[in-house]
Amino acid sequence: MAVYLDNNATTALGEKVLEAMLPYMGQVTGNPSSVHRFGRLQKDAIEQARESVARLAGARAEQVVFTSGGTESNNLLLNGFSRKNKEARIAVSAVEHMSLLEPAQHLLPAADIIPVDANGCVNVAQLEQVVSEQTSLVSVMSANNETGVIQDLTPLIEFAVQRGCFFHTDASQAAGKIALNFVDSGVHAMTISAHKLYGPVGVGALILDKRLPMTKIQFGGSQEKNLRAGTENVPAIVGFGRAAELALAELQSTATHVRDLRDALEAGLKNFSSISIFAERAERLPNTVQFGIEGFDGETMLMQLDRKAIAVSSGSACTSGKTEPSHVLKAMKVADALANSAIRVSFGKNNTMSDVEKLLAALTDIIEINQQSSVMMAATV
Amino acid sequence: MAVYLDNNATTALGEKVLEAMLPYMGQVTGNPSSVHRFGRLQKDAIEQARESVARLAGARAEQVVFTSGGTESNNLLLNGFSRKNKEARIAVSAVEHMSLLEPAQHLLPAADIIPVDANGCVNVAQLEQVVSEQTSLVSVMSANNETGVIQDLTPLIEFAVQRGCFFHTDASQAAGKIALNFVDSGVHAMTISAHKLYGPVGVGALILDKRLPMTKIQFGGSQEKNLRAGTENVPAIVGFGRAAELALAELQSTATHVRDLRDALEAGLKNFSSISIFAERAERLPNTVQFGIEGFDGETMLMQLDRKAIAVSSGSACTSGKTEPSHVLKAMKVADALANSAIRVSFGKNNTMSDVEKLLAALTDIIEINQQSSVMMAATV
Fold first, then answer.
1. 3-state secondary structure of A20
2. pLDDT for position A376
3. Could you confirm whether A121 is annotated as catalytic?
4. Which of A6, A34, A74, A240 to mutate to test the interface with B (most CBs of B within 10 A)?
5. What is the nearest CA distance from B214 to chain A, expressed in angstroms?
6. Contact call for residues A92 and A111 (beta carbons, < 8 A)
7. H or E element, residue A345
8. What is the pTM of this model?
9. What is the ipTM for the molecules in this complex?
């Protein structure tokens, strides 16, 4: 059995989630925009899921806008906000996911990048460097997809609000792993994705405080409170709702389970020489560890582990295959050679301690073989 | 059992389609962008589906870009083209779906509307009225969602190409109902949606000739040949592929089946006085009939039929609930009173002759009751 340790890239659809979706994937159908009984049934299912997603986010149902995923949510936020606020400057952290950084750079020439410290954290002083009179939106993620680092958003939100800015957080990696509280935190917008929390792919949400000026960017229908045209993906939305309910109910137990695995892995990793655990001292998601081993290439090691039927990542799935070091590690001023050796392990609720043991054994093999061939190469020189 | 006669709004997911999807909705997961075996399996599944969708469209696999649905495809086409061609004027027919008309109007102030004749058809003379030196893209749908009218695209494409324009067709309603031939027809872009042909919601395609200058509009990853960022919706894409295979294999048999039902319905409808079948003399999709009965309100009749457990539409699901008459019928210069009485019946492969009989019986009831109450009202005046 192959071992899947890449749960920050995507998670397996939960059995109970699939069960909830199947009644909407059969012979009874209907377009939620249709006024007849078939349509109304679908509409009701959407509204029930909206309640569940809102509860997970600590938001009110009417604040939830369903999208096709986290990438669309981030694009909708930035593009929709900038269409309404033509003069807006926005400030985004250097460690955001590319689905936030790229639209910021492409759609908004007026984007300023907030630097981070060596752990990838943003503090008020760093935010202050960047926020100007013209800044109207600040976006800092809740937790990083590569390192797992959790941002301390409270002082950042407070500062941004004092300066008259709106605040968005991409909680795609945080949702289902740590508690979220949209309303109480004072953020004005939040991104979540279903397939990161055992829900289906193809659905996400942008949670919006109505004070944030927004307009839709996909036209042709008045779905989702006129913020997202297009026939609603009802089975996926229903699955998202169920996954959100389960994630909320299991938040503590899942966190404890994956933290045990992660801590055991980190303890084992420390037996390897020249290993660095990125952002080790920062508060991190319980399931994530990203490390580097000097002298190794992360992509090569990933492929060597794959041949041993163990799936890990070198960073973000969305940028995999690229040869440049991760922009997250670069922003943390990790040296290129070490950044290029990065391996990310992200546990999920289906993993077991045996998976940790298999990974440690495989890493030991790979490192030993490499050292032998280095010795042999040195001997033949 | 309720009778579903609204298959142009959405169709029931096919059993074989669900079967194909389920292996991608279970415990084995992977992000198609991940380089490990879990990711590669997902990537392979996408590429296989791409072949099937291409075959249905008469296109090559590399021309297919998967999106979240027909609405996104139309938005991507217009917005992506206009970003690459800042000076472009585009010409779109007056009877397009709102997912084409709205982005044309919102995103491109430089959109010209091509008028249609009384059947809702575009001819070369009408296109010539609108196309200027500045026009660089023409968009005319393959078949209309409300009336079912099939456009004779060949002369329009020929004219557009002579004038140096690119040509797009929204084939969302045509796909699975009539043959498509992307390559041979000479169009440069085509929209298809899966849930109109017994595939899943949440997935569609924009089929693109590489000569058409395009750029992505959703940023943050290089998925779909760098034209659509975001984690691919693998189960939905796989389902789209399977639905496309089945639609192609069953094209003739489905068309014959639904045409028999439609013709029987039309024969029955002619027994009602003051009935008009819209675009009756034009070539239409085999499954669709839109009619009006003078003196009746379409939305009211829809609700009366719904109470009798029969689901029809008054026009497009995406604009339902609106009180204005359909923009399609307006463009055909149908009088408002008649347009407001419109009822659209769209058959699917699951319908039977008994459904036709139930609809005719229900309409007879509703019309009789209405006539009695009119007589009574006249008597009491």
1. helix
2. 59
3. no
4. A34
5. 15
6. yes
7. strand A343-346
8. 0.96
9. 0.95
